[in-house]
Write a structure and sequence with these properties.
CATH class of the largest domain in chain A: Mainly Alpha
Oligomer: homodimer
Largest sheet of chain A: 3 strands, mixed
Order of helices and strands of chain A: HHHHHHHHHHHHEHEEHHEHEEHHHHHHH
Shape of chain A: globular
Distance between the termini of chain A: 70 Å
Radius of gyration of chain A: 30 Å
Strand order of the largest sheet of chain A: 1-2-3
Helix content of chain A: 55-70%
CATH topology of the largest domain in chain A: Tetracycline Repressor, domain 2
Structural class of chain A: mainly alpha
CATH architecture of the largest domain in chain A: Orthogonal Bundle
Mean pLDDT of chain A: 86
Low-confidence stretches of chain A: 1-24
């Protein structure tokens, strides 16, 4: 869990009676730091830039104090590399710990190189284990060795154990800090333990896991249920069945389960069944957003270059897709080359050709996007795939008929040529059908072969609809027009 | 909060010592109900269909008992209308309550029409207020009146009050059940209250809100902190600043705040500042997924027809976008008509034309998608817009140069015509620049005018790149080739 969950201190609520009122100056800064939309206020950013440029340490500290760690992380994205370094110098290890886990990965990598190993080791000690691992895996090899060496034995071992799990699995996502109680305890014993043994516990938690003598979880108790049960109630009586997460489970799978069963936290178990950690919903919110962003970007044929990538980083994330598009499109237009004579005779074909391929491309993208979404939310699977494919094809035929009618009439009205109108109509019907077929089958087939359907489907579908668009129009024209 | 959070009972953990072991037959069913990927097992669905078709009530109840409510809701999606009705008849009000809030909206509407008002009123009484409101707003007017009339006074008023808030605002999202304590209480008093006064409280909660005498929240205490504080500690001493959510805030805004500050729950306040409810993170997970799905679908030019929409529903969700595409594409190709003579002279232009527009379309979609994503995560705003627009244009120029070089050489190799190669190269550079410009500016401008950038940007960008693709190639050809 992110340590920031402890600091939900965006002061929308201002007059907090019973607390020491902050300095009026600070209130003003907090008020102006964020705009109405909770994004950083450009004027506030300008003030930070100004203070950093002037090297005004006191002013900088004052400005930073007005921000939630998540907002400081955001702020970094608006600063130049030099100003970032200046800001970094004015953060204590605890603030640094909070901010590091919020930072954009690109900026974090840059900042990590600037930090002395001992300071970083201290900041890592302040984090929950999942956040610390997240940072350590970003370090260069030699820096990692130095930082780990500077950490206390226990923390180092915890991080090294987590790093042994594969990326994007439950093992990486979990925090090792977890609250458990033996199954023979009662509510009173459990509550008393919280007052005496709070050193080893996570700062925030929501469920207690009841374990058997071999440390396997046998049930879970939400804190709000524990609080309401009489002290002498045995835990075994109020515990509820658990959804256990195997340590090697893929994070996308974990997110699916959290979302489906509305979990707030879940125990993570080793292959033998022993409790080794927990995953909390606030980490899952991040995963859900990552995964859906990955889908959006993949469908558009662009890799994530990161918010602060330079021009070259962005070019590298896009040019390969454009080159691939160039290759497939070149193959598709080779069809046109074959029918050059037809075009030379009826030049209107050159005008109408892009309409057929564009409509096909759009219809294919529609079918494809809906299919990718349905696959990732598991609404589309082997139990209903056949029904959904057939439904798509019927939709493709119907849309094709409707568009063919509209466009056929338009072509007739403009060119007064009924054979050209028929050619156009039939080509649209053919291409919309191919678009539906490719749009629904490409992602299903890719998924079945273990590929990410969002990544390569677009290329396949666009190729199919462009190729077919040209072939249908020019082929039908050769048959009935010439 | 969804009532299902109480039932995290997907039995991955089987032998729960200390609990009564379920009947062996049931274990087998639970084991086989879900596949390895936690989706429903097609064989299990077939068993349900079979039992429903035979009207075998006992078998049906046995099968349904093996499923989590979320899985029963999923199951409904795989059944015919007749089988759904059969399954519905075998659910008691409590199970019904759990399942209704999980169902796909299309199916829910259909099932709600089949339920007698008294049964539905009873099921609504079992739900938390936010889930109940969600169902009631789906009811036909006359059914709504009947159902509300059949509910106890208090529950009816709660639902009617919530319905008064606008859709997709915090007011609709919140549950009215909330745990609060006066600011002069101490920890002991607060904990004791949970044992005596648990009737009015939500089943599950994570934070206690401390309120002043006018019922305005002044601080929050996570349960895990409350449990660890000595009994005599005043609440005011351990409470933390809160992020308050105004009741009229848009749900997308709420999701942004939850995600940014890693909140688990947050108090909802009326315009005067009084505490009126709370929003919990599990409701937000749903909102985040809804919003990102909406973005994905909007970018592909398709409305969400729902998983179980019929052919006509799907056609209605797609055909309008295709017709719009037809219109814009027809305008774009009118450029080709103007240059018919050029094509008639150099037929290779008809072959190369689609490559220029396709490359532009792809590059535009890339820039657009990245911009839409950055806008919705607020990484792109007025503080850095200028820098990002300039960066996009440089990227567009660079990609244009690279692709122009590749394609210019290819054209020369194939056609042995250096002027045609220059024409192609220059057209690609021009169109890639326009693609970058349109791709980054369209979403920014739309957002500034208060429109959803995901919805109409694609149409604008595709139009711009197609139009420019044709114009650049044919126009340059007329100048230097003819």
């Amino acid at each position: 869990m992110s340590r920031d969950a402890e600091h939900p201190d965006l002061d929308v609520a201002l007059p907090t009676e019973g607390q020491v009122a902050p300095h009026p100056q600070t209130i003003d800064l907090e008020d102006m730091a964020l705009g109405d939309d909770y994004a950083l206020n450009p004027d506030f950013v300008a003030m930070v830039v100004d203070a950093a440029d002037r090297g005004d340490a006191e002013r900088l500290r004052e400005l930073l104090a007005a921000l939630h760690p998540a907002d400081v992380a955001d702020l970094m994205g608006f600063l130049s590399a030099g100003d970032r370094e200046e800001v970094l110098a004015h953060l204590d290890p605890e603030a640094l710990a909070d901010i590091l886990s919020e930072l954009d990965p690109e900026i974090r990598e840059e900042l990590l190189e600037l930090l002395p190993p001992e300071i970083l080791a201290k900041a890592l000690g302040e984090m929950e284990s999942d956040d610390a691992v997240d940072v350590v895996e970003d370090l260069e090899d030699d820096m990692r060795v130095q930082v780990l060496a500077a950490m206390p034995e226990g923390e180092r071992t915890a991080i090294e154990t987590s790093l042994a799990y594969e990326e994007e699995t439950a093992g990486r996502l979990m925090q090792r800090e977890v609250v458990w109680a033996p199954q023979f305890w009662n509510v009173g014993q459990t509550i008393d333990r919280f007052l005496t043994d709070s050193e080893d516990m996570p700062e925030l938690f929501f469920d207690i896991y009841v374990v058997d003598p071999s440390h396997k979880p046998v049930g879970g108790i939400p804190l709000s249920h524990l609080l309401r049960a009489p002290r002498e109630t045995p835990l075994a009586q109020i515990m509820e069945p658990l959804t256990e997460i195997p340590v090697e489970m893929d994070q996308e799978e974990v997110a699916y389960i959290f979302n489906k069963y509305h979990l707030i936290s879940a125990p993570v178990i080793e292959p033998g069944g022993r409790l080794v950690g927990q995953i909390t919903v606030d980490d899952i919110v991040g995963v859900i957003q990552e995964e859906s962003e990955a889908d959006i970007l993949a469908l558009a044929g662009v890799s994530d270059a990161g918010r602060d990538a330079g021009v070259f980083g962005i070019v590298r994330s896009r040019l390969p897709w454009l080159i691939l598009n160039l290759v497939t499109e070149t193959v598709a237009v080779s069809v046109i080359g074959v029918f050059q004579d037809a075009i030379a005779k009826v030049i209107a074909l050159a005008v109408l050709m892009p309409i057929v391929s564009s409509l096909g491309g759009n219809a294919g993208t529609q079918a494809l996007t809906v299919a990718v979404r349905a696959l990732s939310s598991r609404e589309l699977n082997s139990a209903n795939a056949r029904r959904i494919v057939i439904r798509e094809l019927v939709v493709g035929l119907f849309n094709g008929l409707a568009l063919a009618l509209v466009m056929g009439l338009a072509v007739y009205a403009f060119y007064h040529d009924d054979r050209l109108a028929w050619t156009m109509g039939l080509a649209i019907i053919a291409n919309l059908f191919v678009a539906s077929l490719a749009g629904i089958l490409a992602p299903i087939v890719l998924e079945r072969f273990g590929r990410d359907p969002a990544v390569s489907s677009s290329v396949l579908v666009t190729f199919a609809t462009d190729f077919m668009g040209f072939l249908a129009l020019l082929g039908i024209a050769s048959l009935i027009l010439l």
